[in-house]
Amino acid sequence: MSVGIVMLVHTALARAEQVARHWSAAGCPLVIHADVSVPNKTFRAFREALSDLPDVRFSRRHRCEWGTWGLVAASQAASQIMLDEFPKVRHVYLASGSCLPLRPVEELIDYLAERPQTDFIESATTADVPWTIGGLDAERFTLRFPFSWRRHRYLFDKYVALQRTLRLRRRIPPGIVPHMGSQWWCLTRQTLSAILSDPERATYDRYFSKVWIPDEAYFQTLARQYSRRIESRSLTLSKFDYQGKPHIFYDDHLQLLRRSDCFVARKIWPRANRLYDAFLTDAAHAMKKTEPNPGKIDRIFAKAVERRTRGRPGLYMQSRFPVETRENGLTSAQYSMFQGFTELFENFEPWLARATGTRVHGHIFAPERAEFCDDQTVMNGALSDSAALRDYNPHAFLASLIWNTRGERQCFQFGPCDNQAINWDIAKDPNAQISVISGAWAVTLFQSNRNFADIRREAARLQQIESKHLEILRSSWTKARVRIWTMAEFIEAPMEPLQTIIDEIGAQQTTRGIAEAPKMADLTGFGQFLQNLKNQGMHPYLMGNFPVAHSPHAPQAGKRKPYLVR
Amino acid sequence: MSFVQSYRMRLRRKHAKARAFRKHFALRPVVDRTGQIRPGHILLFSTMRDEHVRLPYFLEYYRGLGVDHFLIVDNESSDGGGDYLADQPDVSLWHTRGSYRRSRFGVDWLNWLQARYGHGHWTLVVDPDELFIYPFCDTRPIGALTDWLDGSNVRSFGAMLLDMYPKGRLDSVPYRRGQDPIEIASWFDPGNYMIEKNRKYGNLWIQGGPRARVFFQDMPKKAPALNKIPLVKWHRRYAYISSTHMLLPRGLNLVYDEWGGETASGVLLHAKFLDTFTHKAEEEMERRQHYRASIEYKAYMENLRDTPELWCKWSEKYINWRQLEILGLMSKGNWA
């Protein structure tokens, strides 16, 4: 009997009894502490049930609320009994009623027998670890915490703030350096008895009883005073979520726990029958050893914390609906928006799809319907092309489109004729790549067969809409990568901007440059068209400077060779 | 939130409680087995009418999850469903002739029963055509979820309504008694949902899915709400305000995270669109006992006459909860 178990129980006493029997069967003496909150009747029955076991003692009951001194007091009292009554015990293992031994107890006994002088206690200085909950690390040793964090959070926070403002500090008793770590330890008789019979113990107890979460600091700090060899890790597998609450293990964790290299796991759901059946068995029936792979457990629980605190970027759903600025990504992936390109180039969409291998949509915010690629009426995720549904919540529409097509870059067209309600959302989205040829909407009017009065009115309207949009794109809140050219600027040398855009999209085949250019619309007479608008008192300025009068022999932008090969 | 607003909410809650009290006189106990209820039991509350064909699977499914007792209001079933329920060992049954609409679609009746029997219990409020899915529901009983919620100091758990539909005409495959309805209605819309926050009550208002896509594409505002909070650690002071979409006090509606993270959530598979639907829709049109004078049913009837299909190329076939979690329709949160 070289290992003694100190067991703290508060609920699920039937399970605690089962585990106690398992420890006892391997010859480990036990000292059990039951929380005061356990009703007397239940406690007596529990005690009665264990009366047939030889080396079981019960210690005086304390109230063990999370993060309070009671847990330390209970461990102290129970450890004292253990040391006094079982002189042969060399290591004392602190466990709880919901702990489950994962490996045969004999293995633990042998393991500890080989390391008779080693204390297994996770113990680190506050400066070195990021575990802390509630933003308190060093301060948990220098402030006072009379209010419960769980029940009186408001008072707790206010009192901490007050102490910070008034710069109230507690003095740390001389000679000790605060350390903290997992509350589940395994200490040698030498270390533990030195802590318990320290002449300064009254001072330490008084100090730690006001420290926040003393059960993670008391033994962890004092062991540093006496231990000859500390191995700073816990033999108990215990994972904590972002609130400092232990993760619970269920039946479906069986394979995972088998691959853990820890001796004991905490905490187990009391009704996880499969786990209790699988692990509480004698060595002969114990499962075949599997290659330990504790990293997998770490990953699963680290991911759970990550999911709870940061979530999946760009996902809006029933349990993730971030307020503005906390989205961690307005959308889930990068996408490109083109304005004025389909007007200027006759075959821009198929050309872009060919050049980049992305999904190229038409004007998905068009007034009649969302023009998805290939004329589909429904897109990935069963997203409808109905304009009414889309305009009902344009942001949800865009976020869904990008989310539903994860793994495939989306490109779409936009223009002043489209629903402008989405402008701010896209401008503020770092995932957006926005390319605008300003004033290109005039090409459609130029080619249209409408009365000039209508054209003039329409041109004025579109120019106003686009200039408002450009104002947004140029504002200081814009996070998208925005490129704006005037039309005149763009047709001077169209290949260069196109190459830049496509390089940024990161398409497969662009290392050699674009093989072909899209075909530009015939702009013969466009300059005159703009002049006519001006003559009618409407001043088109977004397209830049075009030659006022068109002469058939002058070099003209629209006359550029439609296909360029670099 | 100002004091005045808080007080207004309190009055609204009191009003709901008063209605529940008033409407409870219309309830007549048929079989009262509530004496079987023990502390810690998980209780299911439901109201139903002419759902006999669905009941065997409904009970089997929720017993399998670990529901301990069913408290059901039978609103004048004429198909023998009431007698069937009365024979079940773990069902307590009430009968009423009251108006479904004027008891605010059953909410008043259930609010009263929940206050009376649900206090201190985890209560699940679902319709007979809703199957509750939560993270790990294939390996962990519902007690694991409620224990975990208790441990995390969470009082309510959200589960969005996910409309399930068959491939092809709704009436092409008849539903047999005791059959898993998801075998027939196994398709759903994976990614066309729209969310807004209800500033007044603090809950999210979710619309979308096949009903918005097919029936309400020209009047999306009228599309049915899909947000639900079916699982609540009940206190006698709580009250559902509008179906199980929202509750008072408002804190219970905060089943989502606003700071970028995800809380755990589930899904209610809504197996409404079976072959029984067309018949039901005709009947409900006549009774006019449903929300907004049965506008929903009106829209369904008009559309189903010419295109009786909800399925589309991008519909997804249901596999399990993990699939829904990957699609982003529900989340494990920090439950692992």
Automatic annotation (TrEMBL), chain A:
Respond yes or no to whether keyword Transmembrane is given for this record: yes
Q: How does it sit in the membrane?
A: Single-pass type II membrane protein
Record domain DUF5927: where: 266-566
GO BP field: proteoglycan biosynthetic process
Spell out the molecular function terms from Gene Ontology.
metal ion binding; protein xylosyltransferase activity
Which Pfam families does this UniProt record tie to the protein? Branch (PF02485), DUF5927 (PF19349)
On whether Membrane is a keyword of this UniProt record, the answer is: yes
Q: Where in the cell is it found?
A: Endoplasmic reticulum membrane; Golgi apparatus membrane
Q: Kindly state which keywords UniProt assigns to this record, in alphabetical order.
A: Disulfide bond, Endoplasmic reticulum, Glycoprotein, Glycosyltransferase, Golgi apparatus, Membrane, Metal-binding, Signal-anchor, Transferase, Transmembrane, Transmembrane helix
- Gene Ontology terms, cellular component aspect? membrane
This protein is called Peptide O-xylosyltransferase
**Taxonomic placement:** Bacteria, Pseudomonadati, Pseudomonadota, Alphaproteobacteria, Rhodobacterales
What domain of life is recorded for the organism?
Bacteria
